[in-house]
């Protein structure tokens, strides 16, 4: 359920439209909820018709919302979803690209198609979203947020596909920021560390032992909350974040401040697979 933000004014995004790829669960739905609670119209997209319907029904409790089924690997499907959003709400002010796939697999056991699948969803899918939404963005003042991960710069065993895909997202974010910044379109990314209550962490730290070891590598000694990641997105898209462009904002409780070594070592000794 969308809960009013204790920090941002409730009408901050009134009259704005936010398109969220992968916005039907977890972190991305958390972001959609927060923008909805701040007055924005929401359009969410993912592969599952049921997940889209459930997310839209929930978001309609806090404001205008709609959605479409699309696989971000299919550029035509992404374009069609964006067309439906424009038809419904007239414009797009903010696009969040967060669809992703993750599983743990050592490189020597990962098939080429397994590697390709994650790169296709995370990196190529994010390019599809950015590329397809760009012509429709209401500019200036428009913003794109790509959802990265600290794997982009922390080489975790069993995550070669994810590390490569997210590093690509960071590089893409910076290039698009340079190309589109002059028109007033800001492109930034958020790199969360471990986030509580998510499918991603259920896959990466499935037991309490995994979770405890990972938690000990985080200076704040806890995972981030969905609201903390959502508020990071809100900040970047608000006037408070108006001079951020090409930034990959890390939100990980200080885990990466210590360098990737401790994280990778604790991960390797605890990781499934
Ligand atoms: P999640 O709940 O599984 O969210 C993934 C979303 O993407 C779902 O809505 C899913 O819905 C959609 N999706 C997956 N494949 C898709 C595709 N091919 N086309 C369109 N939509 C697709 O996972 P999460 O853990 O919240 O992760 C969300 C984002 O945060 C990801 O980008 C992830 O890499 C990033 N992240 C997560 C963590 C963490 O701690 N969980 C940490 C760092 C970064 P459908 O199944 O209906 O398609
Ligand atoms: N270990 C090793 N390889 C795996 C794997 C695992 N756990 N899961 C899938 N793969 C491989 C498959 O074997 C296949 O390769 P192959 O054809 O050589 O056998 C390839 O990945 C594609 O798998 P498939 O199941 O056809 O892909 P999909 O497109 O249906 O689903 C996934 C994509 C695999 C990423 C799936 O886990 C997914 O939909 N995830 C979305 C939710 C998620 O991951 N959330 C967390 C986000 S951080």
Notes on the structure:
The chain is 43% helix and 13% strand. The chain has helices at 26-37, 49-59, 75-89, 112-133, 160-180, 199-204, 208-215, 226-237, 260-270; strands at residues 17-21, 41-46, 65-69, 94-97, 143-147, 186-192, 248-251. The mean pLDDT is 95. The structure holds NADP nicotinamide-adenine-dinucleotide phosphate and coenzyme A.
Q: What's the SSE blueprint?
A:
Blueprint: E1 17-21, H1 26-37, E2 41-46, H2 49-59, E3 65-69, H3 75-89, E4 94-97, H4 112-133, E5 143-147, H5 160-180, E6 186-192, H6 199-204, H7 208-215, H8 226-237, E7 248-251, H9 260-270
Parallel strand pairs: 1-2, 1-4, 2-3, 4-5, 5-6, 6-7
This protein binds NADP nicotinamide-adenine-dinucleotide phosphate (NAP) and coenzyme A.
Coenzyme A (COA) binds near residues 102 and 111.
